[in-house]
């Protein structure tokens, strides 16, 4: 995905200047590519660890994408992780070992932070956002700013890469029929583990039936996403969820086999129809990275497949197939979504676009650099 295709959208007089924290990683590179050609956002600053800072991006990044490093990024100097970047807001693709306090430092310094990392997803005053699912949760930002004394800054997160696809598919079903129980088994791509990620000798010709912390995230995050913000706190959706997570030798695209029970009886035909008809409203559909129908239903018995379907809807759609009766629960299906786009960079860019149209992003005044004291002669 090279960037949004809705082209010449002139909704904002000036572009918002975006910084990318963790710009050299797998997710960071996706941000860099998406921002290189964005109608509302301009790639202004890049930051990473001290291994990379002080060097030109093009010299230090191990670029993994098929298209070349965007010109806008190649010569940018990678900065250290300090909240004095010359930009209006930041995307965070930081390793979770550093993301927690770093994102708080940026929010405290007045930056809106759009985070991919797990650290703040379940905080009681931080929106865990999928615009097509729970945009009303943005109301928590005001409470977060009050609780934490943030002046202009805040943190908004996007879900874990497997949760993102799952919840996109669960949302229309929850609205139409209600959800009782969900049983999900994942087959997750290696790019989900970052770079260098899983050692080739561990994954080639193999399946690893454990991804640290992943099952917990898949069981917790949907409760918040499909739950409600009641004005002062998040109220969980209260479904039963059991997840098994596996790493498989696939490059991009997380596949999930899901069985679910519904509160209201529905036929397989009705379930398929509700998924096929899931469409976002005009406000969301007008966002550069959005797709009108974020769930794509395929008919073929042998789809979805990561290599063939991960880029559906520019990587922003969840692809569902094999919708059929389940002899234990009510319905079973297979879904696929792009872990680095829908599950990471694309998700955060879409979140930022929604924040922009809702007035949460502002043009910040440049942070003055400290003036060096004249050396006495
Ligand atoms: P990655 O490839 O390992 O990249 C990590 C980034 O963090 C690099 O830019 C690295 O910079 C930077 N970093 C590491 N230690 C740092 C430090 N001490 N100070 C400043 N920067 C530091 O990981 P990734 O796959 O892109 O994932 C990034 C985040 O997104 C993680 O929190 C991950 O859990 C989350 N996420 C990933 C996916 C996915 O599918 N991959 C999906 C959803 C969410 P250097 O290059 O300079 O070391």
List keywords for this structure.
2 domains; disordered N terminus; Rossmann fold; 6-stranded mixed sheet; single chain; Dihydrodipicolinate Reductase, domain 2; 377 residues; globular; binds NADP nicotinamide-adenine-dinucleotide phosphate; alpha/beta; 14 strands
Percent range for β-strand residues: 15-25%
Low-confidence stretches: 1-5
Using only C-alpha atoms, the radius of gyration works out to 21 Å
Order of strands across the widest beta sheet?
3-2-1-4-5-6
Rounded to the nearest angstrom, the distance between the terminal CA atoms is 57 Å
CATH class of the largest domain: Alpha Beta
CATH fold-level topology of the largest domain = Dihydrodipicolinate Reductase, domain 2
Identify the overall geometry.
globular
Helix coverage percent of residues? 25-40%
Q: Which second-level CATH architecture of the largest domain applies? A: 2-Layer Sandwich
Q: What summary fits the major beta sheet?
A: 6 strands, parallel
* Average residue-wise pLDDT: 95
Number of helices: 13
Q: How many strand segments? A: 14
Query: Structural class of the secondary elements?
Result: alpha/beta
Number of domains: 2
The molecules bound to the chains, other than polymers, are: NADP nicotinamide-adenine-dinucleotide phosphate
The CATH homologous superfamily of the largest domain is called Dihydrodipicolinate Reductase, domain 2
Order of helices and strands: EHEHHEEHEHHEHEHHEEEEHHEHEEH
